[in-house]
Amino acid sequence: MNQTVTVSITEDQRDCYQEISNVAMGQAADLLARLLDVKVILPIPVVNLIEVNELRMALSGIENTESVSGVCQGFIGNGISGEALLIFNDTSFADISSLLKYGGITDSSLELELLMDVANILIGACLRGVGEQLDVGFSQGHPVVLGQHVNLTDLIKAKNYRWTKTLAIEINYKIEGYDINCDLLLLFTEDAIGVLNEKVNYLLED
Description:
CATH architecture: 3-Layer(aba) Sandwich
Radius of gyration: 17 Å
Order of helices and strands: HEEHEEHHEEHEEH
Structural class: alpha+beta
């Protein structure tokens, strides 16, 4: 007879995940700031244990009326797996193109290139930052386009997750003086949460 395993996190664990995310987010933002020669505005990361079908609620940084584009990238390491989602409001592309010296002219193929470039920088740096603190080496899959110029609900629907609960960490990046708004969402599978909690408990004991 199969037993249902209850997945949960304590307030102390949530605080620890938030602190880990804060450090990782800062490292990723520093990389982006140096690459684009801008000031990146950083919020406090939002950590929630949610049902996957509540994913829309986890993306508080983007309005539902906005047209967005997004990519996802799977990751795995030391028994911990998940997916990273990077979602841009479409008004970001002209400014990103200009900052990356693409000439400010954008079409859908160039936008896709910009999306992949920024996704590689932010997702890679953020996962490295999280992995270094938890002593985990993450391997990343190839980025996959979820959609371009769609509303957020449709973008999320495009992804069919095989798990029900997820530890979701939302990081919303804005760039001072530019109309650039992107949401990075790290989603850890429910199977990974027990392993993550053990690692976080070890940090809390120090």
